[in-house]
Specification:
Number of helices of chain B: 10
Number of helices of chain A: 12
Distance between the termini of chain A: 45 Å
Oligomer: heterodimer
Order of helices and strands of chain A: HHHHHHHHHHHH
CATH superfamily of the largest domain in chain A: MetI-like
Number of domains of chain A: 2
Radius of gyration of chain A: 23 Å
Strand order of the largest sheet of chain B: 6-7-8-3-9-10
Chain lengths: 281, 253
């Protein structure tokens, strides 16, 4: 009896400790960013592009990187959805959901999911060289789209699987075609689509390696798809590498901006997801 | 009783994977009657029901041989139009599954698939189907509320109304009352009895008393085979087959 009680307590303490480690590191990371970043935060940081001498501690901000990151993450997520939704529907609604082809496709996407983002960057770069495109917003969006497609497909796939078979049968037995049934399923999984968007956007906005060669860097806000674009993670990387203390501080301020952007996206998508789940069964 | 069968099943065999679920089924289902398919769990009742509107098509590794004639037309003919076949049948599943939309849109869903009815026509149709299933007075003030706000019994009647809105000829019920409370069950059963004037109704049930209450004919299925088929009272009170006798008396289930 005592042994069982000890075992119960031992594992409970283990779980509590593990939870503390996770929460603790979260607060440490966010705390560090705030502690180091807030002193260097200013209105200029989010409203101005780098002025002359930004990298040696003079005036300006990182608006170029904020806008560039939003363009790339937003563009890649939208483009990724345009490709992933049809794929996820095809796997589940047109192929037999648990048949050989569907499962092979799932494994393929799992492998793609695990490929490091630098490989997508390099692959995107190769394509760009082939077509003679220079490092640009377009190149960045394409490379990041490749990166987020596996995330989107697998998330949507998991969500579609949770749609009850009977709901699909209900639509089919009213004489719906597969596509008409799929549209109804898309309605049902709208909250899940927002989760997928969130995951994809979060990954896209935080990734450095895929945009390193493909998007390039620029102190200006791109005005066309063919101009290079700055991104927040790259801006952090460059600023951290500076020997000037003030520029290093700005790296933390940029990290703070990135964190807040991700936070806003998270809250927005959870609000939208709730709003759209009212008709869900 | 079989002079004018609505559904005629001929030598139907269904395999899923290596397992034979239905074995050489042949049966004629009479027009505008209530027919109950009874039998123990896993005997193939639901599979048989689903062959009638080709809902098995999407199951992995399924192999179907034989014919199912609906109004004399073989629905497993490669040239048969599957949406057209399914439109002829309303399906009522074990639990209600309202579509993720409002009460009104649930009923309008089918008619909208098959044409572009005018608003006024739809309004009338929705009202008519809700009245046919006794829901109108309960929901007329909240037609645009999500269907999921209804009670489970109301949802099942909504699903029935939704099925009727595409003007089917046949209603298929797959243990349609098994998730419902006794009051809702009795409402649905009464609906079945009144609807048989216009529709052929095929119900799967494992409740013998329900089969007795609502059906004109009973099909007894055991281990993928039809053991006996006959008028309700005859089959229940004077079964011809040994297996039917044992099932009806409750020795096997």
């Amino acid at each position: 009896m005592i042994r069982r009680k000890l075992e119960e307590n031992f594992f409970r303490i283990l779980m509590v400790l593990a939870a503390i480690v996770v929460c603790g590191s979260f607060f440490l990371i966010v705390g560090t960013i705030f502690y180091k970043g807030v002193p260097f935060m200013s209105w200029d940081m989010i409203t101005k592009i780098p002025g002359g001498g930004f990298y040696i501690g003079k005036e300006g901000g990182v608006l170029n990187a904020i806008v560039g990151s939003m363009y790339i993450a937003g563009g890649a997520t939208v483009l990724g959805l345009c490709i992933s939704i049809p794929v996820a529907i095809y796997i589940n609604m047109y192929l037999k959901g648990n048949g050989f082809i569907s499962n092979s496709l799932r494994i393929a996407f799992d492998v793609l999911f695990g490929i490091p983002s630098i490989v997508y960057g390099a692959f995107g770069f190769l394509i760009m060289v082939y077509f003679g495109i220079k490092a640009s917003l377009l190149g960045g969006i394409v490379a990041v789209t490749l990166l987020v497609i596996p995330i989107l497909v697998r998330t949507l796939d998991e969500v579609i699987i949770t749609v009850p078979r009977e709901l699909r049968d209900a639509s089919l037995s009213l004489g719906a075609t597969r596509w008409e049934m799929s549209k109804m399923v898309l309605r049902q999984i709208r909250p899940g689509i927002f989760t997928a968007i969130l995951l994809s956007f979060g990954r896209a906005i935080g990734d450095v390696a895929s945009v390193l060669f493909t998007a390039g860097f620029s102190d200006n806000i791109p005005t066309s798809l063919h101009q290079p674009a700055a991104t927040l993670p790259l801006a952090i990387f460059f600023q951290l590498g500076s020997p000037v203390e003030e520029v290093q501080g700005r790296a933390y301020a940029s990290a703070l901006i990135l964190t807040v952007v991700v936070l806003i996206i998270t809250i927005l998508s959870s609000i939208l997801s709730k709003r759209f789940s009212k008709n869900k069964i | 009783m079989t002079n004018n069968p609505h559904i005629s099943v001929q030598n139907l065999n269904v395999h899923i994977g290596n397992q034979q679920i239905l074995k050489d089924i042949s049966i004629n289902i009479p027009n505008k009657k209530v027919i109950s398919i009874i039998g123990p769990s896993g005997c193939g009742k639901t599979t048989l029901l689903k062959t009638f509107n080709r809902l098995l098509d999407d199951t992995a590794d399924v192999k179907i041989t034989g014919k199912v004639l609906v109004d004399g037309e073989n629905i497993y003919d490669p040239k048969a139009e599957v949406t057209h076949i399914r439109k002829k049948m309303g399906l009522l599943s074990q639990r209600p599954y309202p579509l993720p939309m409002s009460i009104y849109d649930n009923i309008a869903y089918g008619p909208r698939l098959h044409g572009s009815p005018k608003r006024a026509e739809l309004d009338e149709l929705v009202e008519q189907q809700l009245k046919a299933t006794g829901l109108w007075n309960e929901v007329k003030d909240r037609l645009h509320a999500p269907a999921t706000r209804l009670s489970i019994g109301q949802q099942q009647r909504l699903c029935l109304a939704r099925g009727l809105a595409v003007q089917p000829e046949i209603i298929l019920g797959d243990e349609s009352t098994s998730a419902l409370d006794p009051v809702s069950t009795s409402i649905i059963e009464d609906l079945f009895i009144s609807l048989k004037e216009k529709y052929t109704i095929v119900l799967v049930t494992h409740i013998l008393r329900q089969a007795r209450r609502v059906s004109d004919y009973i099909i007894f299925v055991y281990m993928g085979k039809i053991i006996e088929f006959g008028p309700t009272e005859e089959l229940l009170l004077n079964p011809q087959q040994e297996l039917t006798k044992e099932y009806v008396k409750g020795y096997i289930s």
